[in-house]
Amino acid sequence: MKDSIINIDSDLIAIIEAINSAPAGIAFLVNSNNTFHSVFTDGDLRRMLLKEKKLSTKLSVEYHNKSSITAKEGEDIFELMNRINVKVQIIPILDDHGVLVDYFEYKHKTHFTPIAEPDLTGKELEYLVDAFSSTWISSRGAYIDKFENEFANYCETTYGVSTSNGTVAIHLALKALGIGEGDEVIIPDLTFAATINAVLHANATPVIVDIKEDDWTIDSNEIKKAISNKTKAIIPVHVYGQPCDMDIIMQLAKQHNLFVIEDCAEAHGAEFKGAKVGSFGDISTFSFFANKIITTGEGGMCVTNNDQLNQRMRILRDHGMSTTKKYWHDEVGYNYRMTNLQAAIGCAQLERISEIHQLNSGTENNYRKLINDKTLINWQNNLENKNKVTWLICGTVDKNRDKIIEELRKKGIDSRPFFFSLGDMPVYKPYLFSNKISKKIAAKGINLPVKMTEAIDEKINTIKNILKENTLN
Ligand SMILES: *Cc1c(COP(=O)(O)O)cnc(C)c1O
């Protein structure tokens, strides 16, 4: 860095030399007392030369009142990252006396480990370009059919109906099943809010029930207690990749004549007693948001074995338009379609889903090996009969969860608290049936990064140390 620091009284030739030798292609100007003045980029240099300046021009003459965005020593990496944009690529770091001590340059992999990120290293771009070149960029095209068929097949189901996201997939499923005003739908307390929002948007009444301590999925005993003569459906959520007890749930549904919509947004490919999640319910829904197990950017899918439901969903997804009479509408529908561009990405993702699962579970195993101490963190359970998949790395900590998240953040490691208990939020509280265990898990749960390609052990050890500092007395 020393070579790229230059006095404001220097001339243009000196700054060209400084920029040329600087690794980042910029120079730092300092005042004669050595305090920081500003950043000088090769863009600044071009602009000065274009104003027909001579190489002997003194910088101080032209440049005295330029200022730069700077940071103080010890500032939070995330704060620095927030200040990086197209114009600000480098942030000089100054000590208390205004002397340059370092600079921050955003390098994704070194400074920041996101909780999850899409893995687009297969044929995603190739198929995307192919779809683009075909000019079928809206919701018709070869990739849509291919993705729907192949994904349904992957889920061991017959029909796939792609949607614009995972939330509307749930809404579409509810509408296709004729669920609406006056109907009750039982959902778990621990889930992403999309589950309950979709029920509310269908004008039905959600009934929020508690989860099980061991695997955090919906408690079938609580479902039993919550069933009333208004109950029409259950939405089990395979939360954090963990399959629900689908045998008991399907049995309850059969007994009480209820529909089952599996929310599989976080569990593509997970299995219960050897059968894929999504293959049990009347309709099952998936999300392909960028942080899910596989992605289409935004996107979702309903799968079913029932052709009538398949056709209902196709009509409702396309404005409720008659399939035989163009622009004739027998009912009020929606535009919930996925684009061929999204489906193209989806096809490439699906080709690699087992590879993605392996990478994710490999990372999870690494965590479990390096942090094998229940006083630090309790990892999500692997249970008999359940083949969970790794979405995010999940565990519960007995103390200081939020402080741990804060300290990880300072080290550039992204982490998340679990979803809040739905029943704890004022907007959803009116629909609460039970959430005793869920409240507890929600307050202790933490999600850690799953996609790590560099310095994995080092990062996990950093996490371990932060856990140690905050959970041990
Ligand atoms: C992500 C998610 C959804 C919604 O998916 P989007 O594609 O983001 O609309 C629904 N349910 C659960 C459990 C989710 O995690």
Word description of this protein:
This protein has helices at 12-21, 42-50, 59-63, 77-83, 108-111, 124-133, 142-154, 166-176, 194-201, 220-226, 246-256, 307-317, 340-351, 353-370, 401-410, 436-444, 456-471; strands at residues 5-7, 26-30, 36-41, 71-72, 90-94, 100-105, 159-163, 184-188, 205-209, 231-234, 259-263, 271-272, 275-276, 283-287, 300-304, 378-379, 386-387, 393-396, 416-417, 445-448. The protein is an alpha/beta fold and 473 residues long. Helix 14 (353-370) packs across helix 17. It is globular, with a radius of gyration of 27 Å. The two termini are 42 Å apart. The protein binds pyridoxal-5'-phosphate. Pyridoxal-5'-phosphate (PLP) binds at residues 165-167, 191-192, 194-195, 237, 263, 265-266, 287, 289, 300. The site of pyridoxal-5'-phosphate has 14 residues, from helix 8 and helix 9.
Which class do the helix and strand fractions yield? alpha/beta
Number of helices: 17
What portion of residues is helical?
Answer: 25-40%
Task: Give start-end ranges of low-pLDDT stretches.
Answer: none
Shape: globular
Q: What about the largest sheet?
A: 7 strands, mixed
| End-to-end distance | 42 Å
Mean pLDDT, all residues: 93
Say which molecules are bound, naming each kind only once: pyridoxal-5'-phosphate
| Percent of residues in beta strands | 15-25%
Could you tell me the number of beta strands?
A: 20
Cα radius of gyration in angstroms: 27 Å
Spatial strand sequence of the major β-sheet: 7-15-14-11-10-8-9
